[in-house]
Specification:
This protein is an all-alpha fold and about 270 residues long. The chain is built from 13 helices and no strands. α4 crosses α10 and α8 packs antiparallel against α9. The longest helix has 25 residues. The radius of gyration is 19 Å and the shape is globular. The N and C termini lie far apart (about 50 Å).
Length: about 270
């Protein structure tokens, strides 16, 4: 009897109700669950942050491919209750061009990663992100008109950063935070943007055969924890002023810059 491929096994489990193995509730799983809870709170509150919080931890615990699958699963269906209200108030003339730029320019970021010095590249990216965050923190605002071509360009920068360092959030966040838009609209734009990108990521992971049963079991095991964090962050968002929202989201931007630093090379250079 031919052995079923991982993708076929998950397909049968989903459509035919075949029981799936439970995750091992060991130390790595508990660490991931706590991380996912924090990421859910950040996502529900600010509209982004899941990838930059979960990816480094899940990658260290289970490997980069597993981390990708875990992110795709926890950040798809559980976000629907939080995202649906946001879809009604998002500024789609800004969101859709940004989505197009994001998806079209991810390959460009991957190409740059293959030909450029990765350490220099990551230092440059982190410095640029931190400078933008510092300017916004000091009250700088972009006064020009926000047109679809400009939104596309910002999405393209996000796509390049996604291909280079898996941090697409900062460019679009900085662009929208620099606008006079209220926090609710900025959050709605971010939720809509990343929800659409997650649907595309889900399709990519499925067609690539990455949904292996053990990894799917881990992802499904932490999904309720992530959903609880989402609801908590969503509730906290309703009591957060625009000023506090900008402070929290800018703090997440700074965190993403520090997480993107080449820490392995820094440790090696310092002899650690």
């Amino acid at each position: 009897m031919a052995r079923a491929t991982p993708r076929k096994a998950v397909y049968r489990w989903v459509l035919e109700g075949i029981p799936m193995q439970l995750p091992s509730f060991d130390g790595p799983f508990l660490i991931l669950a706590v991380t996912v809870l924090v990421a859910g709170i950040a996502r529900g509150l600010s509209g982004f942050g899941t990838g930059l919080i979960v990816a480094p931890v899940a990658g260290a615990l289970y490997g980069p491919k597993a981390a990708f699958v875990i992110l795709v699963i926890i950040d798809s269906l559980p976000t629907i209750p939080v995202t649906i209200p946001a879809l009604r108030i998002a500024v789609w003339r800004d969101v859709l061009p940004a989505v197009a730029g994001l998806m079209l320019f991810i390959p460009a970021g991957v190409y740059i990663l293959t030909v450029a010095d990765p350490v220099v590249l990551r230092w440059f990216i982190c410095a640029a992100i931190l400078l933008c965050a510092a300017a916004l923190w000091r009250g700088w605002r972009y006064q020009g008109e926000r047109t679809p071509p400009k939104s596309f360009a910002v999405g393209a920068v996000a796509g390049v950063l996604s291909g280079v360092a898996q941090i697409p959030g900062p460019p679009v966040l900085v662009y929208w935070l620099a606008s006079p838009l209220p926090a609710a609209i900025i959050r709605a734009n971010l939720l809509s943007l990343f929800f659409i990108s997650e649907i595309m990521s889900f399709a990519t992971a499925w067609t690539s055969g990455l949904f292996e049963a053990p990894v799917v079991a881990i992802a499904l095991g932490v999904t309720p924890v992530y959903f609880a964090g989402l609801l908590g962050g969503w509730a906290a968002h309703g009591r957060t002023s625009d000023a506090h929202y900008r402070q929290i989201t800018l703090s997440l931007v700074v965190l993403s810059a520090f997480l993107a630093l080449p820490w392995g090379d820094i440790a090696a250079a310092s002899g650690l």
